Amino acid sequence: MPDSTLRGGPESADSQQVLRLEGVGKLYNPGTPLQTQVLQDINLRLGRGELTALIGPSGSGKSTLLNLLGLLDTPSAGELYLLGQPTGNLDDRTRTQLRNQALGFVFQFHHLIAAFSVLENVLMPLMIGRGKPTAADLELARSLLADVGLGGFGDHKPTQISGGQQQRVAIARALMLRPALLLADEPTGNLDTRTAEKVFELFRHFNRSFGCAVLVVTHDPRLAAGCDRSIELVDGRIVSDQANKG
Ligand code: ADP
Ligand code: MG
């Protein structure tokens, strides 16, 4: 598959659209007494450059939805298109390739590797795919660290910096491969209000400077209101989807 297709170049079906879901549902443990319908009839489009908040009560299916969007799990119904490409019938290798090239992830717990330096952690996604980083890779990693305000911390170990700083390293790491879509699942769940605001400012910064779409789960209505759009999930269904006033 040519790289331009994965990145939604001019050849892709709709270069302005990062993601499209049509009638997506998720059933856990199908055919067993534990069967649970967690998502139902999700129809959703995410455009390039959109910063979107996903809100909803605990247990409403937000993480399940993010796992589907991130190609970490597969829908039980419907179809999910990433960069115009249907993903339902991809083999594992192509799926992984598409995930690595098009998507970045930030989780509530940053999952930095304690044995590696901050700079090495940022480089990690690239080293997994390609091995030794080039000079240009190092330059990008350093500039991402500078962007998240940690220019002087590349040689530190994750344990030597604060929780908020660790989450900023995780954001730099998620952007290392220049994803078209950044998915963040309660990335500020553990942070104080001011630090959480800073993390959202970073999402906005990268959304503008890289043009990457961002979908971020948050419980904080104020943070959600600062996004371009808010989608609310209740009991596995989208109950509202609205543009926020700028
Ligand atoms: P949220 O992120 O909004 O809190 P989740 O997507 O984590 O919600 O969970 C939605 C529902 O799906 C919950 O009722 C949860 O118990 C259930 N659930 C999540 N993961 C699984 C799983 N792997 N197997 C069965 N049920 C699950
Ligand atoms: Mg969750």
Question: How would you describe the overall organization of this protein?
Answer:
By secondary structure, the protein is of the alpha/beta class. It has a single domain (9-243), classed as Rossmann fold, CATH 3.40.50. The protein is 34% helix and 26% strand. The protein is built from eight helices and ten strands. The protein has helices spanning 3-6, 62-69, 92-102, 118-130, 135-147, 163-175, 193-209, 221-225; strands spanning 17-28, 36-47, 51-55, 77-82, 85-86, 103-106, 181-185, 213-217, 229-234, 237-243. The strands form two sheets. A six-stranded mixed beta sheet has the order 6-7-8-3-9-10, with helices on both faces. Strands 2-1-4-5 form a four-stranded antiparallel beta sheet, with helices on one face. α4 (118-130) runs parallel beside α6 (163-175) and α5 crosses α6 (163-175). The longest helix has 17 residues, at 193-209. Mean pLDDT is 91; it is low at 1-13. The chain binds adenosine-5'-diphosphate and magnesium ion. Adenosine-5'-diphosphate binds next to β2 and α2. Magnesium ion binds at residues 62-63, 185.
| Overall CATH architecture | 3-Layer(aba) Sandwich
Mean pLDDT: 91
Tally of DSSP β-strands: 10
* N-to-C CA distance: 39 Å
Shape: globular
Q: Which structural class do you get from the secondary structure elements? A: alpha/beta
CATH class: Alpha Beta
Quaternary state of this entry equals single chain
Query: In the CATH scheme, what's the topology name?
Result: Rossmann fold
Strand content: 25-35%
Strand order of the biggest β-sheet? 6-7-8-3-9-10
Bound molecules: adenosine-5'-diphosphate, magnesium ion
Helix and strand succession?
HEEEHEEHEHHHEHEHEE
In terms of per-residue confidence, which ranges show pLDDT below 50 for 5 or more consecutive residues? 1-13
Query: By CATH's scheme, which homologous superfamily applies?
Result: P-loop containing nucleotide triphosphate hydrolases
**Biggest sheet record:** 6 strands, mixed
